[in-house]
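Figure 2 data, in text form.
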Amino acid sequence: MKLSSTDVQAAVSKMSGWAVQGDAITRQFTFASFPDAIAYVTRLAFEAQAHDHHPDLTVSYKKVTVTWSTHSEGGVTDKDLDGARQSDTIARAFTA
């Protein structure tokens, strides 16, 4: 179920680096190298597939922008917030 904009704002305010952008939440991660960025995307892809919920991903050299939104619901749901948290967890594996 789509969350209200108030609920999305409240949740995102507690999530470092995440922002509301239209009907989605987004964050840009910067990695030490292009291979690290691609490895992050690969790990996130397998996790997303396991949960049958997939983010939009943009890779630009060492930067990966992750955008979560449930298109069938027309906005952000609890699944997207969970996906964002998982995105953060995976990213931490690449920081020293």
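Caption note: The chain is about 40% helix and 20% strand.
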